Amino acid sequence: MEAGIVGLPNVGKSTLFNALTMSKAAQSANYPFCTIEPNEGMVSVPDERLQRITKYIPPQKIIPAALKLVDIAGIVKGASEGQGLGNKFLSHIREVDAILQVVRCFEDPDVIHVAGKVDPVSDMETIEIELMLADIQHLDNLLPKLERAAKGADKEAKLKVEVMKKCLAHLGNQKPLRTLALDEAEKAAVKELGLLTAKPILYVANVDEGDLEGKGPLVQAVRAAAAQAGANVVPVCAKLEAEIAELDEGDRAEMLSGAGLKEPALAVLARAAYKTLGLQSYFTAGEKEVRAWTVPVGATAPQAAGVIHTDFEKGFIRAEIYSLADLETYKTEKDIRAHGKLRVEGKEYVMHDGDICHFLFNR
Questions:
Q1: Which residue has the higher pLDDT, 12 or 292?
Q2: What angle do the packed helices 265-276 and 13-20 form, to 10 degrees?
Q3: Helix or strand or coil: residue 209?
Q4: pTM, whole model, 2 decimals?
Q5: How confident is the model over 257-264, as a mean pLDDT?
Q6: Distance between CA 283 and CA 358 in Å, rounded?
Q7: How far apart are CA 175 and CA 108, in angstroms?
Q8: Do 114 and 32 touch, CB atoms closer than 8 A?
Q9: What is the rounded distance in angstroms from the CA atom of residue 120 to the CA atom of residue 102?
Q10: High-pLDDT (> 70) share of the chain, %
Q11: Which of 30, 212, 213, 350 is deepest in the core (most CB within 10 A)?
């Protein structure tokens, strides 16, 4: 699963990406399209539950969950018609599972804004319109071919034609597809089409150092607009976070304290992105490692086991599961078992966020 970082040029996308991925790369130049090809990186998802587990099960190493991020070139008005990087930019977005849109919520005369003024809600609307126009164009191109296939006995083509027409009507009302109610079969059909506005979105308000909590009017306007879209907002000062990311652990803690922060805003953002992607974590814990594993919300125990190794899913017998609360109460797995708190779950079990697991399987 991966998330694409998008936004207008010069909103701080690449600065944010570099900070998130702990990149030491030089700061981007102050002009549009300094990101030509998408950069990719992995970012750890901070989870304080890992440290709580290691208090009782000391491991040789701790491995957090990770999220793949893609830094995509800045979009401009008219991208759906080929302006800027146009279709090249849009094709990169089609490949990601969720969108992190960076919106500029800071004033800086030395950083050029492509529209000539700082108006984050207008920026949000510009990108949303371009994505909707691209979706309309994409559907219009696909529809004739599928309509021909639907005239025969191709039931899948018929379903897709119906869904595409429903999508076009929704887009025609200037509404992104993530707000369109669909049943499970329709959702699966839409996902195959790679439609941009059907992807979940998280707004990242890039603030200045005087508004780290995002209480200023620009961020409040973003929050109001995002609420209408059913999306969340995370305020981040990309410039400050990039500086923090460059420091060693001790200096980082001192700088955070000086800024009045308990943790880097990037930690909050990583968790929010994880949630936007519809992901959750379960844990395995032993002497070698305590590790967070990533599964979609709704994954079954065999599917979760398959994340570790495909053989675990194929030969799944059962899962032994307990909670962090049980570990903190009884201190050891032996005592958890002795008090009857170790649950034995079968193939139908749906994983819960934070489950601590052992999987039994046939080799």
A1: 292
A2: 100
A3: coil
A4: 0.84
A5: 87
A6: 9
A7: 32
A8: yes
A9: 9
A10: 90
A11: 212
> In angstroms, how far is CA 359 from the centroid of its own chain?
28
Task: Look at strands 39-45 and 65-71 and give their pairing.
Answer: antiparallel
Kindly report the average pLDDT of the chain as a whole number: 87
Strand, helix or coil for residue 186: helix
Find out whether 357 and 344 touch, Cβ atoms under 8 Å: no
d(CA 130, CA 145): 24
**Rama region for 143: left / alpha / beta (φ>0; ψ in -120 to 50; rest):** alpha
User: Quick check: helix, strand or coil at residue 118?
Assistant: coil
DSSP state of 97: S
Kindly state the average pLDDT of the residues 153-165.
Answer: 87
pLDDT digits (tens, 9 = 90+) for 57-108: 999 999 999 888 888 866 556 544 554 444 555 777 888 899 999 999 998 8
Q: Taking Cα atoms as reference points, which of 279, 323, 316 lies closest to residue 301?
A: 316
CA 356 to CA 83: how far, in whole Å? 50
Which of these, 183, 177, 244, 165, lies nearest to 209 by C-alpha position? Answer: 244
Cβ neighbors of 113 (< 8 A, separation 6 or more) are: 8, 10, 104
Rounded Cα gap, residues 204 and 120, in angstroms: 11
Amino acid identity of 36? Answer: I
- Burial (CB count within 10 angstroms: exposed 0-12, middle 13-18, buried 19+), residue 303: middle
d(CA 115, CA 111): 12
Instruction: List the structure tokens of 192.
Output: 């195959």
Between 89 and 284, the more confident residue is 284
Chain-centroid distance of CA 222 in Å reads 19
Residue 13 · residue 36 · CB < 8 Å: no
Separation between Cα atoms, residue 49 and residue 56, nearest integer Å: 12
pLDDT (0 to 100) of residue 93:
83
Reported as a single tens digit per residue, the pLDDT across 175-227 is 999 999 999 989 888 888 889 999 999 999 999 999 999 999 999 999 999 99
